[in-house]
Amino acid sequence: MNVVNAFLVRPITIGRGFAMLARSLAVAAGLVLSACGGSADAPPPPEGRPPTCVAASITTQPAGTSVTAGQSASFTVVAAGTAPVTYQWQRNGVDIEGATAATYTLSTTPLDSGVVFRAAVTNCAGSVTSNGATLTVATSGPVLTITPQPANASVATGAQASFAVGGTCSSGTLDIQWQRNSGTEGAFVDIAGATAATYSFMTVLADSGAQFRALLDCSGQSATTSSAATLTVSAPGSVTLSLLPINGLRPQADISAATAIDQLSDGSYVFASQNRLKKLSADLLTITPFAGTTTSGSTDGDALTSALFNTPFGLTHDAAGVVYVADTRNSTIRRIAVDGTVSTLAGSPGLTGSADGTGPAARFQSPWSIAMGPDGDLYVADNQGATIRRVTTAGVVTTYAGTGTAGFLDGLPTVAQFRSPSGIAVAANGDVIVSDSANHRMRRIVRSGNVAGSVETLAGSGATASPGADGTGAAAGIVFPTNVYVRGNNAYVRTEDGLVRQIDLTTRAVTTFTGSRTLGEGYADGAPGEARLRDLGVGITGGVSGGLVIAEDFAVRSIDAAGNVTTIAKEGVFDQTLAGVGVLKQLEFGLAINDFYALAVDSAGAVIVTDGDIVRKIAPDGTVSLVAGLSGSFGGVVDGVGKAAQFADLGPSMARAPDGTLYVWNQYVVRRIGTDNSVTTLAGSTTNFGAVDGNGGAARFNRGFGMTVGASGDVFVGDAGNCAVRRVDSANNVTSIGVLGQCSRVDGPIATARFMSPSQMTTGPDGSIYVADAGSVRKISADGTMVSTLSAAGGSVATVAAAADGTLYFVDNGGLSMLAPGAPAATSIVHANGGANVLGSVNPSLFGVQALTVLGPKQILVLSGSQLVVVTLP
Fold first, then answer.
1. pLDDT for residue 595
2. In what order do the strands lie in the sheet with 867-872?
């Protein structure tokens, strides 16, 4: 046993090595303690007896409701108890034929007003009847009053315009949806996401004359539109520089070595991150400190100013909001009171063993997981002690099951054996569910009165083949299960093969809830069969609407009821600070000076930005949303929808087609982002660059530094590394304009034309394509037959964009310039400087322009000096 103690004091490194403690603690315990007795080769357990029948009880009573005649009314009852549970709804005490679900819905008439509905709930122990719920049916909808009405607004181009509305409802909840038309003759259309009392957005000249109104209702009734307000937008008197409005972004909170996680009664979450505990708000938008610091220790006291923890792996809470912590490396159980006071409930820091006792007299050996039982006691998976311990809230510790000798044996709790138990949860009937990690099985401690009755194998064969096979009971394979969460009749458990498994506690059927069985462990958001979870992930708890929230070694992620995985927060993304409180969706832009980015504008005026490994959209009101990609990912080029897709270092190439489709260049391939945010790879190879024309994956590219969509819908790529403009047609065939590898500047017919280093590109209103080529602006004619050089544009052009009227805007050594159609020479708009952007209208200047696009008439958007700057012309 001295070997175990030696392992416990081994230093822990921060980062991935730190996160690997989850595996190393339990594996080491299994190897060492196996020498003390027990065998992973023990025969399979006998079939256990069926769970004790627990009488049905109603946990949520049906509630009375009020509706307007003709609307639907629904009543729901929630019951607990041994399955199966059946329902029979009654109307004024009489059974309703066919109403045998937990929810009963009817279409109402005035005659239904005053009727009382209740449900009889039945299971193996008998029946119980719910309270009655009264239905009130009104003959008319609620009264909606609108005040104030939206008022007309006048602003200068580039300024924000705001419209406000107010309303009251005599009953129900006020709902607001802003609408816009294109002028007095246009139809009003809902504005996506504009559901607040005030709607604000940045204006362009084209917005002048648009009208705005709000559609209001009271919980879906009495819908009424407000009066329409007209917007007038005027041009400024001189060139003006202003920042593009961006709302809601903030530095992300630090996420490192995340382990345990627990959903509290108010819907928020507490999770462990190294030696700290942090709190994730119920809306999944804010992460704040909860207890502890980055320093390890065992100090009690105020949670935020003095308390110290040492690698906590287990969390739970009681109904009063008190949080209990399995402080793993301290081998103690800690308590965090509602007022934030931390105390040691049981165990003595640094002293290990298996002694029962009260408070500091008790001993634990790396308590890993902790759960609150329906009896008000705590149950602890004592990982290296190979036991399950019971702890009262007064600190009295007893051994609930297990002998303390590592092994595998079912039976009475005094003779049963476990090997590195890592996860624990308690079902509503008091049965304790245990992840018996090193035995690769799930075990159940059946409740008998107020004590443990017997230990049985719930599921798992002990096989370690990955991925573990689905099946029933011992026919299933469960590879190194860690933390477990129980909801109703199902247990959800994390496994080392990157899966979340669902176990029916009655039938013992094991299925894969989410995670890729073909790709294995990893890191990718997406649908159940495509998402990848980390093998070092251990934390799991309940989420909203039947979902889950999990903690991995460097991420906190959400799993919805269908098994779709989405990352909430992640370690290692840029702009991460220890003081940050935001989550991934609020990540600030990482627009570094002298890095490569691309810009585009959609038909609604939203700005699209490539930002490292994600593509994001900034709506006219400044709201930022994800288009595609997973920030901080390391999967390289992965196709998928939204966050399920991954990019590897997006560069300066992006183009938008008139139908809203986006194209990006990413690691030697051309990729398409559909209007549904689905990402697919069209042409090129992610593993090989080169100079090859051909179809799809047979083509090879080298350093794509610009893109545009031609009038025909073909995608053009400025392949600077191959000194050619590449064309990708609708069938993904790749051809070249200019000879691959022949780097020179030659005008003339396509067959003989040559490019030097084509990069940024744009398509003019006539279909001509303009290319920034080693400082010059080259033109590919609209019919695709000729290449020429625009001498009027000068000789140091870096990036170029075309407006709808044919004006070219470009950046050269002098700053931002424009070339009107037919003009003999370019005109300087904003000069460059060597320091920082100077905003406003008095001597404005730009620094280090990296990307350029046309925002609207006489309005240009540039990425300059790590800022998104709107240039408005008089």
1. 86
2. 240-243, 867-872, 859-864, 849-856
